[in-house]
């Protein structure tokens, strides 16, 4: 994994040692001696990670973190602070100021590199989320955030009932707003947990043989139900190799036991907030994708989506050795409705027709509004006779469903003309197969209009 890392330390020997350790992993590195230099480089070069000593000539690391957090250009750069001793006071100050991690000298090289890889992955994922968020906001797909935050659901995975009960009691006493359940490693992957999936998996591996339990992280990351959850691991401080393995397997955080209450609350709360942000973005992105392929008035698919989906239906028909049908439906004399009653009533008519189409469609059928008053319906795995019957049934349903005028007692009678084309099994092998089929259905539709409207016509190639 490549990355641009800024090393900040007043002592040149510390910077050299870090350059040697990180050079093995081929990171690009720049150096700074003071906080002022570091801030200037951070603004101009936008490094992927900053590694800083706890004390700098012009201020402590917590001041550097606070300054970076206050700068919109730099607040998303993760900061790894290297402390000279395992003193909880300065460590908590740095974490509260915005440091992503604090490590203590002397550092285990394997754990240092694993922690750097983890921070760079988190930075890359956060950047992807910001880009997606910016895109959805620009396109107007962003939905307002919900203010209510439900208590986070935590599954504590631990071997041994006594150890599990002790850890659960300890975590409950943290008052971090967690709903904690326990399960042994052998049960953690089974879909027997009632209700929503856990927001956070907290793995406490067997301290005598942690490797086997840590492999559970890879399984959790690979499964759809748990891949988006946060995974944290509890390990004694001297288990550096196991901690490095946990981070490389996909754990977001490694908490040192015995737990420091304030630090555990801060770290878990931070991870859960990141998970909530990622969940909101996924929901927003999914809503945006739905909106991008949906006609906002009728709720049917739009033309962009339909054009792509017809190709997939044609391909599936070729593979399965079956036929499919395309219908184009156009409302008769719809302009007269708009001119007489106004566009609001016209919109009401379109939504009513869309409802009739949904009521008569099979689950596998494709429905789309592709123009002002023109609709598309694609029927996979069908025959010409069945398609003609479905088209005539839809035509009769529309004609027999007058549309009530909003705020009035009278109704509007609506009819539709339909053109049908059959996609035979080998159409996928032709050049521009779906466009030829739509053109065929469109010619049949125009023929239905010339025939007197309110009727179904079959395309010549289908006939």
Automatic annotation (TrEMBL):
Signal sequence interval, chain numbering: none
Coiled-coil features, chain-numbered ranges: none
GO BP terms: phosphorelay signal transduction system
Name by which UniProt lists this protein: diguanylate cyclase
This enzyme's EC code(s): 2.7.7.65
Domain GGDEF, chain residue ranges per copy: 322-461
Catalysed reactions, semicolon-separated: 2 GTP = 3',3'-c-di-GMP + 2 diphosphate
SMART domains linked: GGDEF, REC
Top-level taxon: Bacteria
PANTHER family given in the database record: DIGUANYLATE CYCLASE DGCM-RELATED, REGULATORY COMPONENTS OF SENSORY TRANSDUCTION SYSTEM
Organism: Roseicitreum antarcticum
Residue ranges annotated for the Response regulatory domain, each copy included: 4-120, 153-272
EC primary class: transferase
Pfam family of the protein (one): GGDEF
GO molecular function: diguanylate cyclase activity
